[in-house]
Design brief:
Length: about 550
Amino acid sequence: MKRSALRVLLVGVTLAAAAGGASRARPERAPRAVVERRLVLVRGSARPLPAGSWVVDEGSANVELALETPGAPRVRALRAGRATLHREGERLVVVVVEGGFRVGAEDAVATEVTFAGRARFGAFVGDAMSAVVRVPRVFAERMALRVVSFDARGAFAGERAFEGAGKPCAIDASLRCFDSGPMRLVPEAIEADDAAAGERAIEARLGGRLALLAGSEELLSVPVCLAGDEACGFEVALRPVLVRAFAGGPTVFRGAPEGEAEALRERLEHVMRPWESCGIRAQVLAATVVDPPREVLLAFGLPFGLPSDGSEVIEARAGKRSAVVALPPKLSPREAARYVEEQLRASGFDVVRSERPWLVHEERPTGELRVLASHGEPTVHVRHAGRLAIEATRVELRDGLEHFDDARAASGSQEERALLLPLVDGVRSTVDVFAVPFFSDGRRVGESFVATDDPSLANVIVVDRAGLASSRTSHVLAHELGHVLLRSGDHPDEGSRDTPRLLMDSDASDASRLGPRLLTVDECARARKQGRSQPLGVLEPFVRPVVAP
């Protein structure tokens, strides 16, 4: 983390006036009242003064008076302390406050702060940060000091008040020194339990800022960014889609469409917070509500990729269109898909051919064809499947979505492909998140597709009602996003000890209030690297927030 000298911000002016002068029996000019004002400055900051001949009292070496242009004086704070300026009829008390953030035991003050990394089993690693303030002793009791964090939009995220009344500063007995004590920045306040003894945690937002306040006045602020990188952090765009159980039917939330879309968007924003500790935040796009597709998906060659034997026959209907297609022998699965495509197009059907990934147990890559609903809802009857094992699939979510098995994790089940292929947006830089009512056997609550050789379903997540409902304790969405960012379907406990509090653990069985939310330092580094790898990278750097000097 970079360190530099104090960064400062002018905080404000408070006025106090004293009135005087008693009336006399004879009309006589009353003495002019002396107006006293107080000006609070942070070391290094400057403030213009009203035009006039100001004089700095002797011994006030912590301020400097300069004339930048004739009649335009400025007062600059040189160091913490108290000074007085005066001119005829006016007195200005200048209070200079010095403060900043530091990391560990270093005296240098940090110009930025970051979420702490984690060791494998949850403890924070690296030095904690603290806020330090020096205030003139006579004003120390009037300043309520606190550290406040804000998100990128300026909304409040968390705060910590200074404890104790401070102590005399070793460098100057006229000053009082305050120290917030060691603090950790965390994406959720619930993670404060991971802080070591004597440390405190403050909830903060990646891309926001951390401010040091005296009362309601801000002394200084620094950005909350990823340390050691040119960018402040990285952002992944999430595109949420709510899929109804049937045309016009309910979604996972069973409410008004507008409220359901907003509920899903808010849920995504919350459950993705564990990734902020890695320097990765989520940008949630507008959610949409859709009906299940009415297309028919034809698969050729499942499950072994064998050629046709000449007995395969299919019949297709859509509106007034119909066709019967008999396949010749010795066609590979993909040749068979092209042959049926040509025959159906000649009969007036709209079809789209897609490429499935070639799985290791298949002799030849299988073929795939989508019969669109352009001219009415299509029906496809397989009269004889033959050696190609032709399979026609339609989406039917009222009995649950059929999920893939381990052998087809790279391609998805047929029903998943029939559902997702028409609905993905085709933008590889975004992650599509589909919420469906439930999976067919009740054992699966979320899935992701991470095969880099099948771009049609890359960067796609599917979650059901149970996955959304338990997201605060099992973090299903954040876990599945981890598979997308890491470009891997592996889990750390598959080759090592079971650690339920780890986000990428396979069973996610920790039912405590903390839940499985922890990421290792290695996982964070790999996610930032793999998440940017092309051609399917989804992470984009975002710039550091600008804070006032």
